[in-house]
């Protein structure tokens, strides 16, 4: 299916950080087409389709009364570990916001009949003015194809640069092939679209937030320490076992990684 609304720049997985940074700064978002592909993507999709069966539909219109979500995928599965560590995505997040960790991480299945979500800025959970600069980057992974008809994320390009009201007409659907990832500044206005088709629209949303901020999901409680202990150090850091400076984020006076090692000894 042709892309009907390419309002954001699309690049391929060979793009440089300089290119991605330029797009993110100018437009507030950029799509990396088929950032995960082939057998790796097929396995990921299969595992996510199974995982989302354990999810629940939302209790609020914002969460989506016909949207099935799994909010703690890192507690339940290892299938997103390499996705979270995708070098291009992680390098861009670090480039934009510095030392970072995962905020909200959600597998989201927008089901037939789901109406459009309320427009929002993900970084709006923090009482910071837009001028404070980027403190969050959100990655929205398309697991099914994202189309205007099935609820592709609707994004208002440039909205990260001004605090005023952004109308629905400024938000345009970002159509993507499976395995592609939409990267948006946390200040960019966006929302899941309405699903007017008869099939689900499976996606994964991974927020990367500055490590000095409290992440939306409390991963240090949801993912058991014994599980974290077995993960790559970079993923441990993303799940909250990090210290940007020595007096921030310690446990009993120790780096959380040292504390974890002592617990597991
Ligand atoms: O699923 C999407 O397309 C975006 C959803 C979203 O922005 C959210 O749930 O916060």
Structure explained in plain terms:
The protein has helices at about 15-25, 40-50, 75, 80-85, 85-95, 220, 225-230, 235-240, 255-265, and strands at about 10, 30-35, 55, 65-70, 100-110, 135-140, 155, 170-175, 180-185, 190, 200-210. By secondary structure, it is an alpha+beta fold. The strands form 2 sheets. An 8-stranded mixed β-sheet has the order 1-2-9-6-11-5-4-3. A 3-stranded antiparallel β-sheet has the order 8-7-10, with no helix packed on it. The structure holds 2-oxoglutaric acid. 2-oxoglutaric acid binds near residues 108, 192 and 205.
Q: Which structural category do the helix and sheet elements fall into?
A: alpha+beta
Low-confidence stretches: 1-5
Query: Sheet bearing the most strands, described?
Result: 8 strands, mixed
Shape: globular
Q: Summarize the amount of helix as a percent range.
A: 25-40%
Q: Span between N and C termini?
A: 54 Å
Hey, roughly how much beta strand do the residues contain?
15-25%
Please give the count of helices.
Answer: 9
Tell me the strand order in the biggest sheet: 1-2-9-6-11-5-4-3
Report the radius of gyration as a whole number of Å. Answer: 18 Å
| Ions and ligands | 2-oxoglutaric acid
- Tell me the series of helices and strands, N- to C-terminal: EHEHEEHHHEEEEEEEHHHH
Q: Give the beta-strand count.
A: 11
Characterize the quaternary organization of these chains.
single chain
| Average of the residue pLDDT scores | 95
């Amino acid at each position: 299916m042709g892309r009907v609304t390419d309002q954001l720049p699309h690049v391929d997985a060979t793009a440089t950080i300089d290119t991605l940074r330029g797009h993110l700064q100018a437009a507030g978002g950029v799509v990396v087409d088929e950032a995960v592909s082939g057998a790796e993507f097929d396995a990921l999709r299969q595992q996510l389709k199974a995982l989302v069966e354990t999810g629940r539909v939302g209790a609020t219109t914002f969460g989506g009364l016909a949207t099935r979500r799994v909010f703690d995928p890192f507690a339940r599965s290892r299938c997103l570990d390499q996705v979270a560590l995708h070098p291009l995505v992680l390098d861009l997040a670090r480039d934009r916001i510095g030392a970072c960790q995962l905020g909200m991480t959600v597998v989201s299945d927008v089901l037939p009949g789901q109406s459009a979500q309320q427009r929002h800025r993900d970084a709006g959970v923090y009482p910071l003015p837009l001028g404070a600069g980027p403190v969050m980057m959100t990655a929205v992974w398309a697991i099914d194809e994202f189309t205007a008809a099935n609820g592709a994320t609707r994004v208002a390009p440039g909205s990260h640069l001004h605090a005023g009201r952004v109308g629905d007409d400024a938000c345009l659907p970002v159509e993507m092939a499976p395995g592609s990832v939409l990267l948006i500044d946390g200040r960019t206005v966006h929302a899941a679209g309405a699903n007017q088709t008869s099939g689900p629209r499976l996606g994964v949303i991974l927020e990367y937030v500055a490590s000095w901020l409290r992440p939306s999901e409390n991963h240090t409680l949801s993912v058991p320490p014994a599980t974290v202990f077995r993960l790559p150090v970079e993923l441990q850091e993303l799940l909250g076992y990090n210290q940007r400076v020595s007096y921030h984020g310690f446990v009993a006076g120790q780096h959380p990684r040292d504390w974890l090692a002592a617990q597991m000894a």
